[in-house]
Amino acid sequence: MASPAKRFYAAAVAEAGDDGWRVLLDARQLKTPAQRPLIIPTAALADTIAGEWSAQVDSIRPHTMPLTQLAFTAIDRVGPERAAILELSARYAETDLVCYRADDPPDLAALQGALWDPVIDWARRDLGLTLVLTTGLLPVAQPPTVIARVATALAAHDDFRLAAVVLAAQSAGSILIALAMVAGELSVEDAIAAAQVDETFQAKRWGLDAEAEMRLAGLADDIRGAARMLTLLDDGL
Fold this sequence. Notes:
By secondary structure, the protein is mainly alpha-helical.
């Protein structure tokens, strides 16, 4: 494993520019891994990213800078590949977690219903989705209108917001949970609970090993990071 890069700057600050906000490392503008200028839409997000760089001590540890990484993703991946990402992300709805229900044990089925039915109801009410629900793991086909309307909902977000939504969807295993959280239908913690309902149920009954606990904690942190990005983007310039 490669050693982390040494911290090479004394100060990291956010500064307004003509086309948005930027982060300066000792007066040098921070760039993405693809060497694109890191232009940030809001002061709140730029200040927070600068704070992530200021918090580095002797070495630069990317895993401690989640908002920096999301901003890099927005510029280096989402921007250049937006159409493909929209199409792929909309297709998450074809196998969305909330559509696959347990029929046994009954208490797990009831818990899934309590956490997932509000997402289904919101998707029907606000997005016009008529979803096919099933029990078991065999895939079921969703109507083409489901994918099209999810794509429309995703396309309403700019590159930075889309990067956050996609991260939340990947971490939750559900594009519908992610979109419901973005819409304010679910709190961040409720979204995590909905995403991890099966694992939480099994943990209470059988327990989880340390590796599984770490994986779930990491996924929960990713959802929280995505939600924080969205909050900072909504805080304005």
